[in-house]
Write a structure and sequence with these properties.
- The protein has helices at about 20-35, 40-55, 70-80, 140-145, 160-175, 175-180, 205-215, 230-235, 235-245; strands spanning about 60-65, 85-90, 100-105, 125-130, 150-160, 185-190, 200, 220-225, 250-255, 260, 265.
- The protein has about 280 residues and is of the alpha/beta class.
- It has a seven-stranded mixed sheet, sandwiched between helices. The chain has a two-stranded antiparallel ribbon with strand order 6-7.
- A hairpin with a 2-residue loop joins strand 10 (about 260) and strand 11.
Length: about 280
């Protein structure tokens, strides 16, 4: 998944889908994939190249993609040599590649560990590529993902920069950016992929996201905020202007499980005790 490249709609009531992000996504999936696949989309230019680089060599690895969209990214990982690839998305509108190593499952990824395609299996890489905003229990799903991760594996989690939404809401509501950034609760907006469909999301800050990661018993091995290159800025000036205006971008995290020693959880890199994790 990736983020829409249009600002939030003017503030008039729209039919929402509170807490059930899968319902509008079922309607939006085809529009999203059409937007994402454009050569000038931010996903094509920035997000997927950065995600792919952070994944590194996937030869022989097992990969679980939670909220995989049409499965196109996972299919490319299978073509790159990944041995077992399982993708879960509620839309069920999947690519048609027939690869022995690729399984695409139409289901709610919030219940991924109850699916027979996942039960009893472990994975080297688990992906939340802009899908984490649709998690019903963010800490819980990260803990359950951690439980099916191989010892030397990692989770790749990407989310939209929350300042982007704060800037857009401030513009629409004629409010201050800081007030919008630190506000709590839900907000509803017309999707950039289809203006007739609304999306409802929970506000969050960067500290909210970091605390969620910590509470799930994970540590951040690497973080990135990829952006357009100088060449891309020259080639796509309108994209550059939009991205500059809204600080549009993604936060990327490479997450590994904390190691438990004597009831305390430690980062293998630092050895720093971080307290017990449930």
């Amino acid at each position: 998944m990736t983020t829409p490249e249009k600002s939030l709609s003017a503030s008039h009531p729209l039919p929402g889908h509170r807490g059930e992000a899968g319902r509008p996504w079922q309607s939006l999936a085809s529009d999203y994939e059409a937007a994402r696949s454009r050569a000038d989309s931010l996903d094509s230019l920035v997000e997927w190249p950065a995600q792919r680089a952070m994944l590194g060599d996937v030869s022989g690895l097992s990969i679980l993609d939670l909220g995989c969209g049409n499965g196109g990214k996972l299919a490319s990982l299978a073509q790159a040599g990944a041995a077992q690839c399982v993708g879960i998305d509620i839309s069920g509108e999947f690519v048609t590649e027939h690869l022995d190593s690729l399984e695409l499952v139409s289901a709610d990824f919030n219940s991924f560990d109850s699916l027979h395609e996942v039960e009893g299996r472990k994975f080297d890489r688990i992906l939340f590529l802009q899908s984490f905003g649709y998690a019903k229990d963010p800490v819980g799903i990260l803990r359950r993902a951690r439980a099916v991760l191989n010892d030397d594996g990692f989770i790749l989690l990407t989310r939209t920069q929350p300042l982007r939404y704060a800037l857009e809401r401030a513009e629409v509501n004629d409010t201050l950016v800081g007030d919008e950034y630190f506000a709590s609760g839900e907000f509803t907006y017309a999707s950039g992929w289809n203006r007739d469909i609304s999306m409802t999301k929970q506000r969050y800050t960067i500290s909210n996201l970091l605390n969620t990661i910590a509470q799930a018993g994970l540590w951040i091995e690497a973080a990135e905020e990829p952006s357009l290159s100088d060449e891309q800025k020259r080639d796509f000036p309108e994209k550059h202007a939009w991205a500059n205006k809204y600080l549009a971008g993604i936060l990327m995290f490479k997450l590994r499980p904390l190691t438990e020693v004597g009831g305390l959880c430690q980062s293998p890199m630092s050895g720093t005790s971080l307290g017990g994790v449930g």
